[in-house]
From TrEMBL:
Keywords: Ribonucleoprotein, Ribosomal protein, RNA-binding, rRNA-binding. This is Small ribosomal subunit protein uS17. The gene is rpsQ. It comes from Sphingomonas immobilis. The keyword Cell cycle does not apply. Part of the 30S ribosomal subunit. InterPro entries: NA-bd_OB-fold (IPR012340), Ribosomal_uS17 (IPR000266), Ribosomal_uS17_bact/chlr (IPR019984).
Amino acid sequence: MPKRVLTGLIVSDKGDKTVVVNVERKVKHALYGKIIRRSKKYHAHDEANEYKQGETVRIEETAPISKLKTWKVIDRVNTHATPERVEVGADA
């Protein structure tokens, strides 16, 4: 069975080697059809304590590490990437 991968925002990095990641999803209400937001917090393993609060990260399901931790942080999602600069004028 493949490991699940989720993307979310770190809401706490106070624990040692642990971050709390808030994962938000959008679902359609069964009766009214309105799109509503549902969120859940996951405790994820961060071996080097390198991820900080406010960063967007991807987490992957693992074997249980502790009572609450069954996820580990894979990498940062670069949400603040700047687009490549395009020169206009000389060749156009």
